[in-house]
Structures are given as C-alpha cells and as structure tokens.
Amino acid sequence: MRFRALRPLALFLAGVMLAATGCVGSGETAIVTERPEDMPSTEDDPAPDVSERQSGEAAAPADTVSVRRFDQGRMWTFEDPPLDYFEQEYGFRPSDQWLRRARLGALRFADYCSASFVSPRGLILTNHHCARESVSDVSVEGEDLVEDGFYAEERAGERKVKDLYVEQIVEVRNVTDSVETLVKSAAQSNEIEAVAQARRRQSAQLEERLTRQAKRQDTTLRVRVVPLYEGARYSAYTLKRYHDVRLVMAPERDLGFYGGTVDNFTYPRYTLDAAFFRAYTPEGEPVEDNVYFPFSRGGAQEGDPVFTVGNPGTTNRLSTTAQLAYERDVALPQRLETLRSRTRALEQFIEENPAAAEEYDLENTLFSLENALKATRGELEGLRDPALLARRQAGEETLADSIAATDSLQKKYGNTLREIERIQSAKRSSVRQMAAFTGFLNPRLGSHLLARALYAYYHDTVRRRPDVPPDELKRLRKQALEIEEWPAALEKRYIAARLRQVRRTLGPSAPVVRRALRGDSPEAVAQRLAQESALTDSIRFARLLDEGYLKSDDPSVPVIEPLASLFLELNRQQRDFALSEEALGARLNRARLAVYDRARLPPDATFSLRLSDGRVDGYEYNGT
Question: What are the structural domain ranges in the chain?
Fold first, then answer.
C-alpha cells in the first residue's frame, strides 16, 4: 500500500477548499490538514490542556548564554557553498569539479529519502528503512522479504519496483530575481498574505515553464523551484529521473532494524540500516556513469575532514523564539499524545488481525508511527531545554540591535519579530478547535472512510459553482478515488477515535458534536458507518461521486456535514496564519542575510540537496 501517493490529496484538497473560502494559493495546506505526525486522541488518552498555556517552560536568562556561530546548523546548499570557511577550517577548498561529482553522485530516493550511486553500473545505496515499502512491494505470494531479506545473485534476479524512481540533480541556478519580478507584477496589494500567495503562484508557474523547456531537451528532466530562507531566496533544481529501479539487496528485518524502536534515533546504533538498488535505462541496461561514491577500504582517519551529502527533509532552525515556544507548548504535546494513542490502536489491531495487517501492509504503517513518535518525543525534549531557547532569544536580540542600528533596515524589518510573535498568540486562541481535526486527511492517522466523505462533500459543493474549472473538478475526483480502502475493523477504530476527539475537544454540547453524533456514542456511529456506508467500497464510492453524495441516504452524510463545515473554516483560518508566517519569515530572513555573512547562515532543510561538514574525532564511551 503506497500511502505516500496520497500525500498530494491533502495538499490539493486544501487548495481547492481555500479557493472556495476566499483564499487562493498554490495548493499547499495549513496545519489542520497536513501534519503527518498529528492524530486525534481517544478519551482514554486525553491530550494535554494547552488552551491557556502561554509559556510552559521558563527560559534561562539570555545574558547567561552566548550565541554560537552555527546555532542554525551547517546544511549548506551546493549553489552557495561556504568555500572560504571550508578552507579556513579544514585547509581544503572544494573545486567546482569536486562539488559537481558530489552533486551528481547523490540521489533523491522517490520523494522521501536520500541515496547515492556507489558503482559505475547504476548501483544505489540507501537506508533499509527507506527500502522497506519497496521490499514489501516486490514480495510475491508465499514470500515475506521484509522479514527474511533479499539478495539477487545476478542482475536477472533483481526485482523492478513499480512506481519507484530516483532523481539526480544535473543543474542548479538561483532564480530569486525571476520570482520576485513576477511577484511585483502579479501582487494586487502589499498585504503580507497576498504577497505570499503571489510568490507561491509565480514560483509554481516558473517551475512549469522551466520544466517544459527542460523536457524539450530530455523527457526525463523536470525542474523543481524551491524556496530557501522561507522565500527570501529561490533556487531551480533540474532533476533527471530514472524510472526503472530494481531491488538488489535488503537485509532481513532483524538485521536491518536491529534493536527495534528502542535503538531507533540513538547513537551509536548497531544495525545494518542499508539496502541496495540499481537504476536502469529505458532500454533495460544498467545506468553507466563514472560519477559515483566508491567505497573506501581504509576509511576516514581521526582528524580528517568529512562531508555528508543528502536531502534532509524539513527543519525549523530559523524559527523564532515565539514560534518554537508555540511548538513546545501546543503543537508538539498534542502531537505526542495523539501519536501514542494511534500507535497503540494500530498495535492492537495488528495483534488481533494478523492476516489483514499483512494484506494492507500495516506493519510498515506502524513502523512509520513509531518513528514519528520517537522523533516527536526528541523534539519536545529538546525544546524543553531552557538553554536552547535562551540562546535563540539572545540571537534575536543581537539581530534586532543590528537592524535598529541601520535606518534602512529598521524601516523595512523593525517590526517583523513582534508581528511573528503576535501570530503565535492568535494561533493559541483556536487550539482546541484545531485539535479536533489534526491528521484528518493523513492516511496513516485518519479514517479513510471519513477522508472519502470529506472529498465527496466538497466535490458536491464545488461542482455547483460556475467558477470552478472543469479540469480542477476532474482532478479532485481522480485524487478522491485514489484513497484506498481499509479493513472495516480498523475503520471502526479510527472513526470512533476521531469522533471521541471531536467530542472531547469541542465539548459534548457543541452544535457540531450534537449534529454529528445525534445522541449516539462515537462507537455506535463508527460501527454503523463501517458496516453500512457505501464509502467502504471503491466502486460504490465512485458512483456516489457521480450521482451526488449529499443527496444520497448514505449514513456518513449527516456525520460529515457538520464536521466539513467547521473543517473548512478552520482551514481558511490556519491558511491565513501560514501565509502570514511565510511572508514574515521571508522578510526576517532577508534581514538576516543583510546583517550576516551567508557562510554563517545556511537555509532550513527543504528536501533539496545539502552538504554538511565535520571532522572525525573520538569521544569517551563506556569508560574507553
């Protein structure tokens, strides 16, 4: 089951919904619809009361800490590497040829992992945890390759993975001026939300135009325009895609995931977290390229400079103190509680229904939840370290002083930090309502039946409007039909969990709750929907989309109508917050770039290629 294919559903649906509520954007979504790690709690696992919390952890005084040069990390872009810093720190200045080889040797593994070429015949190395889904996909009846492992003794035995691809960056260029020129001509006002929307639109249009140009030369090319520094800079990455990717080797689960969840995200970790694939040409031959990362027999020695190349997903190292405090006090505690609840629910289902769990590949779903659970716990522990926020606060005060010292900077950026702080306060006012819908469209955390109901509700709503383009409606229908079925017993658990979450967060007397439950318990409603709704069947779901879902007598209609109405309003509200933060973040980063050398300030991760540096060094461990 390829859950990752469903991610665009949440993105597209949010974009269409926002157009209906007066907010136009690129289709990216707000916190309500797109927090992959968020999920509703059950009544047995109440989420923390965060509605009244303003600053749950006291920070150390800013004057007791010092700002460090690399507090924002060292994930450098290939288009702007800090060559002078490398030379000063390591006595090594990477040449253009060195950087080119490092860039071409690295790969994006689909849309969720990093990889690299490690031979001149297209051999690819990635992590075992990145390969698990592909290993499951190529297993045939009677095999459990995730459990037992796989090795192709010769190329004829390598197994092609359907829909898997890898991408190689063949060109990078700065397109900031192109985007900004288009934005100036397109923005209808100077309001920060309008400017952010214009940037998204123009960035997407530039990406489409550059992709068309690239494909005239090579149909395997596409261009990705990526905002850096939250939109203060833009880079265009031309990627060559290899569609034929075959599994070569993956260790058995006990070796590839040795230590299990306990050892995950720990260091040192003793496990063979590696898997091998091979890229093939359209003619069915291994990709031949003399640019790859060869294995070293000797390895690195103590004191050697070392560099890591890859595509880190997302970081928030440039977030302000106020934004991090919101994550610490509100978002992360909610996420942690809901992840715990959903992980337990899925564990219980798998234990009671092993055959269904295998059919729907739910072990991999559970692995993803456990991964997110441990990562979220670590994030929260980090933000509860008073020294971290104190250092961030000290850095902001230094930045504010630098801005105030220059009239032109003060005029442009003087109020930016205060405006970002104001938005965090506004976001706290709707915490309880937002919690009712966290993870609603996430395929690992939300009911697939309720997701189908929301799509059907909106499909009926927008097709009555003359201003919705037919192509957009067709696209909405197509993506709705991509939502896969889940076992009825699992749907019942997820629907009940969602309805309990809605009732607990909004209160049993809230009109939305009364309309959705109509005097029944969440468990009774969930039982009825799982047993009687046509949305449990893909063919009947398609028929309802065509015939008119809202006029049908499907039992999901009276449940989704009040939920969808509130969902749309919250989505509009959160989108406004997100657009404002995006525009203010770009403004703040322009101020940072005006004050600081870029060799001190790499952009946050954006699942684009980065280069990190360090030096091999020892440390004391277990007394040695």
Answer: 3-36+320-585, 78-312
